[in-house]
Amino acid sequence: MTLRGFAVCAILVLSGCAHSSIVLLPNENGGHGEVSIRQSRGIGGETIVSDSNTRATLGGSRPSIRPLGSKGLSPSEALLVSALPPAAKSFDLYFHEGTTDMIAQSLPVLDQIRAEIAKRPGADVQVTGHTDTVGNDSDNDALSKQRAHEILDLLVNKGFAHTKMSAVGRGERELKVHTADDVRNAINRRVEVIVR
Amino acid sequence: MLRSSGLFVSLAALISSPTVAEIGRIKSSIGIATVQRGTTHIPATSGQGLLPGDWLETGKDGRISLTFIDNTRFAVGPNSRIGLSTFEYNPTTERGSFVTQVERGSIAVVSGRISHSGRDAMQLRTDDSVLGVSDAEVIVEVPR
Q1: Which chain A residues are Cβ-neighbours of B26 within 8 angstroms?
Q2: Which of A77, A80, A125 to mutate to test the interface with B (most CBs of B within 10 A)?
């Protein structure tokens, strides 16, 4: 290696050690989002990184930005990405009008929820009850909460610890299908279960 | 002996402050991996809840994976120290503010609902830079 080549390598190695860097990856919906970069001390402007598979080295007056290129991620970066937990999964369970009784078609969904919980270590389960717009607000708040607790109890009975879950009722505040007041709607009579 | 008494203290602290809402949860960890809460160090075991102000710390072969209630996901690499400085989230409006301090090490982030709240709603900060994350998957590395 020439002296000059050695010097360039040494500088690259040094700068690689000294500076922070970011990589913007494609997101799961096939898009890429964006990251804005500015210095904490407020000097210099803002740089927007919006092309995926881009690396930006921080620390200078402006970040230096380049495509990841054919080398892609380093092994340690690839390992980090593979350690990300899976995306949260959401399920809807539906109910007979004015009751906490699930419709028959929702029973298999309950099994899917249990399976999803079982395969996620440290699972975090959020249960949210909803109603349609028939009836008054306070009755619907109570009914939505009862629906949520009904599902919570069914999941707890299957051995999943109560402390790992939370249940709330949202009444008719978050309609899935927007309707006028006092409209029966089977899609709105639901409990949403999010498993993280 | 010291270890188990430390754990007891941390559990007692958790039980005595039930009003502070959990913002996320550890999914898995390997190697040396702890949650620092004030002066207490809690083992970063699967299912451990997280609060605003917690620091995630890993040793040379340590790793932590975690999720937040707005569906943000983190993977923390070895030799890292990551602060959950600010986390405010309204699940009804799905808006909030989330500031993470990357003091050293490496982290992969998939941003969640909070990052949809506005340009600077989700920030990752290093000692010299502020990164605003919008609906993105990003890796940040801060060598020590």
Answers
A1: 122
A2: A80
Q: Which of B26, B67, B111 sits opposite A88 (nearest CB)?
A: B67
Contacts B125 to A, Cβ<8 Å? 40
What's the residue count for chain B?
Answer: 144
**Cα B144 from Cα B140, distance rounded (Å):** 13
State whether the Cα torsion B129-B104-B111-A26 is positive or negative.
positive
Summarised one tens digit per residue, pLDDT across range B44-91 is: 999 999 999 999 999 999 999 999 999 999 999 999 999 999 999 988
From the CA of B1, how many Å to the nearest CA of chain A? 26
Contact flag B28-A24 (C-beta cutoff 8 Å): no
Q: Are strands B129-134 and A89-94 parallel, antiparallel or unpaired?
A: unpaired
Closest partner residue to B63 (CB to CB) among A25, A26, A83 is A83
Q: What is the pLDDT of residues A88-103, one digit of tens each?
A: 999 999 999 999 999 9
pLDDT at residue A22, rounded to an integer? 96
HSE-up of residue A124 (Cα within 13 Å, Cβ side): 25
Query: Which residues 6+ apart lie within 8 Å of A183 measured at CB?
Result: A132, A133, A134
